[in-house]
Amino acid sequence: MTDSAPLATALASLPGARRIAPPRLSADGVASVILDVTGLDATARDALETEVRGRLAMVPGVREVRLVQTAEKAERRLIAVASGKGGVGKSTLSANLAIALRRLGHRTGLVDADIYGPSQPRLMAAEGEKPMAHDKQLLPIMTRYGVPMLSMGQLVAPEKALAWRGPMASGALGQLVDARWDETDILVVDLPPGTGDVQLSMIQKHRPAGAVIVSTPQDLALIDAARAIDLFNTAGIPILGLVENMAGYVCPHCGEVSDPFGRGGAEAEAARLGIPFLGRVPLDIAIRRASDAGEPPAAGDDTAAAPFLAIAEKVAAGLNLRRS
Ligand code: ADP
After folding, report:
1. Which residues, at least 6 apart from 61, have a Cβ–Cβ distance to it below 8 Å?
2. What's the confidence (pLDDT) of residue 52?
3. How far apart are CA 82 and CA 188, in angstroms?
4. How far is the CA of 151 from the centre of ligand 1 (A)?
5. For site-directed labelling of 198, which of 45, 57, 166, 298 has its Cα 20 to 30 A away?
6. Which residues of 172-188 are buried (b: 16+ CB within 10 A; e: fewer)?
7. Ligand 1, closest atom to CA 291?
8. What is the model's pLDDT at position 161?
């Protein structure tokens, strides 16, 4: 047997040593080595390969170095944002969550799967922009907030999407989720309200890593939210938590916060259901104005962004995300 130990010794002090499977030396002087280059950019990969080749070539008895690079397939994780009914601020939360995750250093994309009212192009100031396709794969558009995005609204006129039957809607969802999201680790998916075909297709075909449920403080919305929670629970998709939107009214004149719909309903409901409470976003005319203007508060100054950044931190912690 040929002794491969000197090869390992030659590489031991390398900073990237843990990426190298134990090298082998054949009887005729061929050193073989496998490098795990997961997560390295092209420059770092080349530098590591050159260094490893150089060191192995110096080992006595080595005539040739054969090196193979491997990388784990990038694992992209989907966060499903769901609500029991429409109008609770699910799309607003999705846009701001995506931007807040990006601000926290996570490479995040946004999918607008809401066939009933695709509003992300407006929220993200990208109305009228159409994605291009390459090899039958859609290329997300890059928004001015550093979050790439695709929307049902870019595929079809809203009144047509409404008439879609299940298979068409789930086919369209597939096109959005399986697009060229190259440098993206997380996809925030804004689902339609309720528990219909798009939700089922999302759960069965695309297996989100977790779900965020958005609700207003009213009890009725909470009953609806409970159905959405049930759907994910039954399918074994972790519920990352509940967001209470439009919680407390911020007076545009004096800034005082009052609670027209009651307070704490969502937090109590989350506790009752045993799921995390992610935080509350106040009912604030400034949020609606900023949203209409395509200027999501999460991209704004620290005060406006604060509730969304806090929610994003909890979501990232729930997914055990590391910054890239
Ligand atoms: P959904 O996606 O659940 O249908 P949207 O995100 O489209 O709901 O929100 C519905 C409306 O409520 C929009 O006009 C939006 O600007 C407004 N809105 C959402 N959240 C808030 C909030 N916290 N304060 C004020 N307006 C809000």
Report:
1. 2, 6, 25, 29
2. 94
3. 11
4. 18
5. 298
6. bbebbbebbbeebbbbb
7. 16
8. 66
Ligand 1 atom with the shortest distance to the CA of 92: 6
Ligand 1 contact, 283 CB (< 6 A): yes
The domains of the chain are located at: 14-70, 77-318
Does the CB atom of residue 287 touch ligand 1 within 6 A?
yes
* Mutational pocket test of ligand 1: of 83, 90, 91, 92, the residue with most ligand atoms within 8 Å of the beta carbon: 92
231 token code pair: 């759907």
pLDDT digits (tens, 9 = 90+) for 59-75: 999 999 999 888 766 67
Atom of ligand 1 lying closest to residue 285 CA: 25
Ligand 1 site, residue 216, Cβ cutoff 6 A: no
CA atoms within 13 A on the CB side of 279: 14
- With a 6 Å cutoff on the Cβ, whether 83 touches ligand 1 is yes
Question: What is the pLDDT averaged over residues 285-313?
Answer: 95
* 65 Cα: distance to centroid of ligand 1 (angstroms): 60
Q: Model's pTM, two decimal places?
A: 0.78
Ligand 1 in contact with 88 (CB < 6 A)?
Answer: yes
Query: Contact, 25 vs 61, CB < 8 A?
Result: yes
> Which atom of ligand 1 is nearest to 245's Cα?
23
Length of the chain: 324
Which one has a higher pLDDT value, 187 or 163? 187
Residue-wise pLDDT for 15-53, tens only, equals 877 788 889 999 999 999 988 887 777 788 889 999 999
Among 88, 246, 284, 291, name the best residue to mutate to test ligand 1's pocket (greatest count of ligand atoms within 8 A of Cβ): 291
CB 190 within 8 A of CB 114: yes
Sign of CA dihedral 52, 54, 59, 60: positive
Q: CATH number of the domain at 77-318, please?
A: 3.40.50.300
The DSSP symbol for 12 reads H
Instruction: Indicate whether residue 281 lines ligand 1 (CB < 6 A).
Output: yes
Q: Which CATH number fits domain 14-70: 3.40.50.720, 3.40.190.10, 3.30.2000.10, 3.30.300.130?
A: 3.30.300.130
